[in-house]
Amino acid sequence: MESEAKQQVLKGSSGHFLRTVLAIFFRYLYTTLAWSYDAVAWLSSMGQWRTWQSAAVQAYPGLVLELGHGPGHLLLDLEKTGNHVIGVDLSSQMTAIANRRRKRGASAVSLVQSRAQQLPFAAESFEAIVATFPTEYILADETIIEIERVLRAGGQLVVIGLKRITGRNVLDRFAGWLYRFTGQSGDVDLAWFEPLARVGLKPELEIVQQPRAEILRLRARKPAPHTQP
Length: 229
Fold this sequence. Notes:
Rossmann fold, 229 residues, 2 domains, 8 helices, alpha/beta, 39% helix
């Protein structure tokens, strides 16, 4: 029994160490290693990353803000769907990469380097705010307060996450384990709805079925003012 207990402790310690290492790596992936982001995203998702992102693409009325735009693929996808788009990212490296992609595509997308917790926009500027596979910043009260502030009445926040990889080949099963191990897939903690509700946003959760994955799509709408009879 004592030997089994020691093995469990060692297993837990090694798992914690690996998660810590991966967290550090992901931090650098947005900064120093930003040049490798597309390759890492493609490999870790077994080629599905851009398909997963497509769950956020639709024609939104009015101006659209993407939080954490990364290398800028989704910005151009949203623009091609007929949207007027602004992208925000704190990483100077990601901003530079997205700007090069914007220029190559002759895109009219605007880029702003800023923190999501201090958005440099006037109140009620955007009809929609989109974030795909965001890190913990999206859960911060300061972020949610800013999102509510810059959303127009009747506008919506759309957050995309991974529920699970459903592909059955060996590589998909490995990717599924990796995303579960690193905490990047799974069900939404419904407790996160509480801070959204506190600022008056109305959250709804959808499951988007894709060929090899199930995608979580959270919509949180800002109620339109009641019209007087």
